[in-house]
Design goal:
Shape: elongated
Low-confidence stretches: 236-241
Organism: Streptomyces tabacisoli
Radius of gyration: 29 Å
Oligomer: single chain
Order of helices and strands: HEEEHEEHHH
Structural class: alpha+beta
Number of strands: 5
Protein name: DUF3592 domain-containing protein
Strand order of the largest sheet: 3-2-1-4-5
Strand content: 15-25%
Helix content: 40-55%
Keywords: Membrane, Transmembrane, Transmembrane helix
Number of domains: 2
C-alpha cells in the first residue's frame, strides 16, 4: 500500500439510543411479577391455616376452654422416622396416634370416636404421655377436648410452643400479603424490591401490614421468653388452669 492512498475504516455499528434517567433521579419500579403474586397467595393460605391451628391448640392446651376428662384407649399406632448418625441409620419413634372413647369429668360429653396424636419430640408433657401409652401400655389418658372434638394434653409448655409457632406464622403472613398485593418476589430482579413493594401497598392496608409486623414480632419475642422461663423455672409440670 502506498503512502498516498487513503486508509479505509470500517463503519461503527449503530448503538441503540440510551434512555436518560428520570429527571428526579428515581429508579423505575418494575411491574408486579405473576410468580410473586402466586408465591404470596400460597404463603397467605398456608399461614392462615397455621395461625388457626397453633393459636386454637394453645388455647385448648391451656385448660381454660374445653371439656376435661379421660380418654379410654382402644388402640394405638406408632409412626417411625429414620435418623442418621455416626453409627448408621436407625428407626426411632416419631409420634403415636391413639383411638378410644372420651368421657368428660362431669359425664356430660361422651365421644366414642375420639383420637389424639402425640409427638415423642414435643413438650415434656406430650412426650411423657406418648411414653405412657406406648412403654407403660396405659389404658387411660387425661386430656382436654374442644368443641370440635380435638383432644390435647393440658400443659404450660405446649402453650408456649404453640404461641411461638402462631406468632411466627403471623410474621410470614404479613410478608406473604405484601407479595400477593404487589407482586414482589424474594429473588432479586423479579418484580418490585421489598422497599418498592412497601410504597406500592394501598394506603388503607399499609397500617394493617405494619401492625401485623409489630404484633407478630413482639408476640414472638414474648412467647420465646415465656418458653425459656418455663424451662428455667420448671413450670412445665404444672397444669395451666
Amino acid at each position: 500500500m502506498s503512502s498516498g492512498e487513503p486508509v479505509q475504516t470500517s463503519a461503527a455499528s449503530p448503538q441503540p439510543p440510551v434512555e436518560p434517567p428520570p429527571a428526579d433521579g428515581t429508579v423505575p419500579v418494575p411491574p408486579p411479577a405473576l410468580i410473586g403474586r402466586i408465591f404470596g397467595i400460597v404463603l397467605v393460605v398456608l399461614t392462615l391455616g397455621g395461625m388457626y391451628w397453633t393459636f386454637s391448640t394453645a388455647v385448648l392446651s391451656s385448660g381454660y376452654v374445653g371439656s376435661h376428662g379421660d380418654l379410654s384407649i382402644g388402640k394405638c399406632a406408632v409412626e417411625y422416622t429414620t435418623r442418621s448418625s455416626k453409627m448408621g441409620t436407625h428407626r426411632v419413634q416419631d409420634r403415636v396416634t391413639c383411638d378410644g372413647v372420651f368421657r368428660s369429668s362431669d359425664g356430660s360429653v361422651v365421644d366414642k370416636s375420639a383420637a389424639i396424636t402425640l409427638s415423642f419430640g414435643g413438650s415434656s408433657a406430650e412426650s411423657d404421655a406418648a411414653d405412657k401409652v406406648t412403654a407403660e401400655k396405659a389404658d387411660t389418658l387425661a386430656v382436654n377436648r374442644s368443641g370440635d372434638g380435638t383432644l390435647a394434653i393440658t400443659s404450660v409448655e405446649s402453650v408456649g410452643n404453640y404461641l411461638c409457632g402462631g406468632f411466627f406464622f403471623m410474621l410470614v403472613f404479613a410478608y406473604g400479603s405484601k407479595c400477593a398485593l404487589t407482586g414482589s418476589f424474594p429473588k432479586k430482579g423479579i418484580g418490585p424490591s421489598a422497599s418498592q413493594a412497601d410504597k406500592m401497598l394501598p394506603k388503607m392496608l399499609k397500617p394493617v401490614e405494619e401492625w401485623l409486623w409489630v404484633i407478630g414480632g413482639i408476640g414472638l419475642v414474648l412467647a420465646i421468653l415465656f418458653r425459656i422461663g418455663i424451662g428455667i423455672f420448671g413450670l412445665a409440670a404444672l397444669p395451666f388452669q
